[in-house]
Amino acid sequence: MLTEIEYKKLGWHSRRGMLELDLLLVPFVEGRLRSLSLTDQLLYERLLEEEDQDLFAWLLLREQAPSEELQKIVGIIRDRK
Predict the structure, then answer these.
(1) 77 close to 45: Cβ distance less than 8 angstroms
(2) For residues 65 and 57, what is the distance between their CA atoms, to the nearest angstrom?
């Protein structure tokens, strides 16, 4: 599992400065990230390396993420359970 500092770092990096992304990513980090497997947590960290415009398109289903792994974490974020 990730350390407390790593969770806080992911929370900080989830604030993208684009309101639409912030409204999706910040609640996800605060409410669901800790309950994911370590593999999925690391996948989320990988997702945050992508450009904001790509994240926006993927999360709003305007485009499909280029890999199955990124498609998986986008689906988890959109699930909101």
Answers:
(1) no
(2) 9
Q: How many domains does the chain have?
A: 1
The span from the first CA to the last CA of the chain, in angstroms, equals 20
Q: What is the CATH number of the domain that holds 46?
A: 1.10.150.250
Q: Nearest 5°: CA angle at 32, between 62 and 63? A: 10
Assess whether pLDDT exceeds 60 at residue 81: no
Q: Say yes or no to pLDDT of 5 above 70.
A: yes
Summarize pLDDT for 26-43 with one digit per residue, the tens.
Answer: 999 999 999 999 999 999
Whether residue 1 has pLDDT greater than 90: no
N residues, the chain: 81
Structural domain of 23: 4-79
